[in-house]
Amino acid sequence: MENKSLKQIFYRGLIKSCNYSCAYCPFSKHVSKRELEADAVELVRFVHFVEQRTDVGAVQIVPYGEALIHEYYWEAMAVLSKLPQLELVGCQTNLSFPVEHMLKVFQQAGGCREKLRLWCTFHPTMVSGECFLNQCKLLEKEQVGFCVGSVGVPEQRERLTQLREKLSKAVYMWVNPMDGLGRPYTEAEIADFVKIDAFFPYLLKHTKAQAAQCKGCQGKALFVHSNGDVTPCNISRKRLGNIYQSYDLEPPLEIKGCGQRECSCYLAYSNRMDMPEMVCYGKYPAFRVATVPQAMFLDVDGTLIKEGCESIDEQVVKQLAHWSQYAGIYLATSLPLVHALKKCHAIKPFLSGGVFANGGMVCLFQEKKTWITSIEQEVVQTVLQLLRAHSVKVRIYEQDGKVYKITGTGRKLSQTYDVLREKLAVNADNAKLTLVLEGKYLEITGREANKLTGVQRICEYYGYEKDKVLAAGDSENDKDMLDFFPMSVLRRNIEAI
Fold first, then answer.
1. What's the number of CA atoms in the CB half-sphere (13 Å) around residue 351?
2. Helix 413-423 to helix 377-389 angle, to the nearest 10 degrees?
3. Taking the alpha carbons of 186, 187, 192, 193 in that order, is the dihedral positive or negative?
4. What is the pTM for the complete model shown?
5. Checking CA distances to 126, which of 97, 140, 344, 486 falls within 20 to 30 Å?
6. What are phi and psi of 199, to 5 degrees?
7. Distances in Å between the alpha carbon of 408 and those of 36, 387, 393, 441?
8. Which of 428, 446, 464 lies at the terminal end of a domain, its last residue?
């Protein structure tokens, strides 16, 4: 079982130099031998610290400058990757290193290539798109996990678009908002960058810093500087201690504030626990290896629609309009079709279908295809007799003469629920019904009807891959669906996906 308590550590060494000379960057300077020697010593000390920990799941090197042109960084990553508790290790890079040679260094040091993740930044003013693309192809050939991206300079839109078109579809390409642009992006610029990076709009938001929602402030992630000092993230200056002194990673640290107003860059933003889209980046979002979903299956009440509200928030509508360009949008709800579409009328133009009545009905709108999982007629009569005997108000949902859901409302539903389970042997292997007691409703469907089986039916029909399906829900009724798909959001009142 996945150990969810493992922490991520970010490490920034002494190196402050780069082999590129970008006009905006202060690190394009010659590196001295003394600086490299000191940096190597500190890196070894850091590796020794991680070797002694059993609660570190990922290490990401985030240097000021370019580190991977130096072999000792590859050797250090190799040592880390051999640790059984470590799941991922990686580094930010401009991808200017000799790929085959450095991977050989990594391999000779015993590195585990499956754990390696590289964050590769394209610098259009320093390297041609063709040269950078060839480097990416080498990484793919060597089966190294990586992402690609660049700063969203409006004048470079065409070159970035060309790179996206030539990259393998399996490689995620991100776009960072440009610091110092001096003006908001135009709608046309945003539209172009969204075609490259579906997640670009999230980075344009002003995300207010909140210690209660930050892994760095909750002791679940650590930003470690070369001297061992710990801060919540790369932009925070709040010193929490020193790993080489008396700093203890347990119990989880909690602080009231990080000293910043906003999570103003991706590394800080990726530590947030209240951003649903982070689920698309896997267990360790900071590596930025994202999966754009092929399909999204979304619960309605309590998930898409806030508790106490009758309709979907306007911001959620905008988000789903955005995602419908990339993924099939489906409902996965206990509501019957008509009731679900009435509540979700604002997003109806973006819906491809859904799982309704807890799986009793599955619909594909474009194909005009419907599957019904019905309740046997003799069982229907037995259920109705039992419900009416307990003064339960009954509603029957059927299509083409087939009953696919029965809903009961009334007093003492929990007692009625227990009686039905006993009388109809719901727990038995040969049971013919599924019962769900949720709030003031008792919902009854056929044994094979549930949200997960309905979602699986749609996935099988379209060939959606399990790892590229996002599921979101908020209740026990969603548990099987959420447990099945790696990209799942257990959340009430989704504001962004």
1. 25
2. 140
3. positive
4. 0.84
5. 140
6. -95, 0
7. 72, 7, 5, 6
8. 446
Range(s) of the domain holding residue 173: 7-287
For residue 331, the surrounding DSSP H or E stretch is: strand 328-332
Per-position DSSP letters for 262-277, written without gaps between them:
B--SHHHHTTBSS-GG
Q: Which tens digit of pLDDT belongs to each residue from 262-288?
A: 999 999 999 999 888 899 999 999 999
Task: Return the closest-CA partner of residue 67 out of 26, 110, 36, 44.
Answer: 36
Tally of domains in the chain:
3
Alpha helices in 445-485 (DSSP H): 451-462, 479-484
197 and 306 together in one domain = no
CATH of residue 308: 3.40.50.1000
459 shares a domain with 428: no
Name 394's bridge partners. Answer: 408
Termini Cα distance of the chain: 26
Q: How are strands ordered across the β-sheet holding 433-438?
A: 393-399, 402-409, 441-446, 433-438
User: Hey, what amino acid is at 178?
Assistant: M
pLDDT tens figures, 180-224: 888 999 999 999 999 999 999 989 988 999 999 999 998 899 999
Q: At what angle do helices 99-108 and 129-141 cross, to 10 degrees?
A: 30
